[in-house]
Amino acid sequence: MGWVLATGLAASALLALATLFKVPRGSWEAIAAALVFGLAGFAWQGQPDLAGAPKAPVQSVAQSGKALVEARQQLSQGGVISIDRLLVTADALSRNGAFGDAAALAIGAADRNPGNADAWLAAANNLVAHADGNLTPAARYAYSRASEANPEHPGPPFFLGLALARNGELEQGRAMWAGLLARSPADAPWTEEIKARLAALDEFIASRAKPVQ
Fold first, then answer.
1. How far is the C-alpha of 5 from the C-alpha of 197, rounded, in Å?
2. Which of 114, 94, 113, 116 is nearest to 104 (CA)?
3. Does the model's pTM come out above 0.85?
4. In the chain, what are the domains?
5. Burial (CB count <10 Å: 0-12, 13-18, 19+), residue 5
6. How is the chain classified by DSSP, letter by letter?
7. pLDDT tens profile 94-148
8. CA count, 13 A, side-chain hemisphere, 57
9. Rounded CA gap, 102 and 108, in Å?
10. For residue range 156-193, what is the model confidence (pLDDT) as tens digits?
11. Is the separation of the CB atoms in 94 and 68 below 8 Å?
12. Alpha carbon 65 to chain centroid distance?
């Protein structure tokens, strides 16, 4: 029953995107691929035969999704909200913790407009969140495309640095933040945040380097 429901939801989502949101036909393949990726995750991790039960972490996931969207928007032209319908819908899903579906819509927005750095960044962030914080090859690719689309955008190095640090690639994450700080104006709204994160990361790296007494 779980498989039928999951497949039906995926098909319904693709149909809604094609009819309600008027997604160009050229984007269908990319969105379908993202939905198939979600079904693959369901096949790998899901247990459709188990009875449903409410879980406490759901609320915290939704809250982290809200923070993720708001942080990206703040780094994108001072919080100006995108007018791209797919990206707006993706952000709504992300706020509620539906990261897989949000990633699919963001990928559709990026496929429709490859120069949309925000769409690539939203796709990358949602892919990381959907993978429980793991920096997957797909997320790395999306971050690189976001940087290519807008090399001056502070979002890609900020979030990629965060993902790298969380995945144990501390020096690489530090390099991302240090590079962003070096090329940012002194009065940029994100400089203090980066300085604080760099200081905390440096302290953590130094503590790991100390020999155990």
1. 43
2. 94
3. no
4. 2-43+59-209 (1.25.40.10)
5. exposed
6. -HHHHHHHHHHHHHHHHHHTS---HHHHHHHHHHHHHHHHHHHHH--TTSPP---THHHHHHHHHHHHHHHHHHHTGGGPPP--HHHHHHHHHHHTT-HHHHHHHHHHHHHH-TT-HHHHHHHHHHHHHHTTT---HHHHHHHHHHHHH-TT-SHHHHHHHHHHHHTT-HHHHHHHHHHHHHHS-TT-TTHHHHHHHHHHHHHHHHHHHSPP-
7. 999 999 999 999 999 999 999 999 999 999 999 999 999 999 999 999 999 999 9
8. 2
9. 10
10. 999 999 999 999 899 999 999 999 999 998 888 888 88
11. yes
12. 9
Q: Phi then psi for 58, rounded to 5 degrees?
A: -60, -45
Residue with tokens 């400089």: 191
Torsions phi, psi for 82 (to 5 deg): -65, 150
**Structure token pair of residue 67:** 């923070």
Q: Which amino acid is at 12?
A: S
How many Å separate Cα 73 from the centre of its chain?
A: 12
Assigned token pair, 210:
């100390």
Q: Which two tokens mark 38? A: 């979600």
- Using N-to-C axis directions, what is the helix angle for 57-75 and 117-130, rounded to 10°? 160
- Which residue has 């200081």 as its token pair? 199
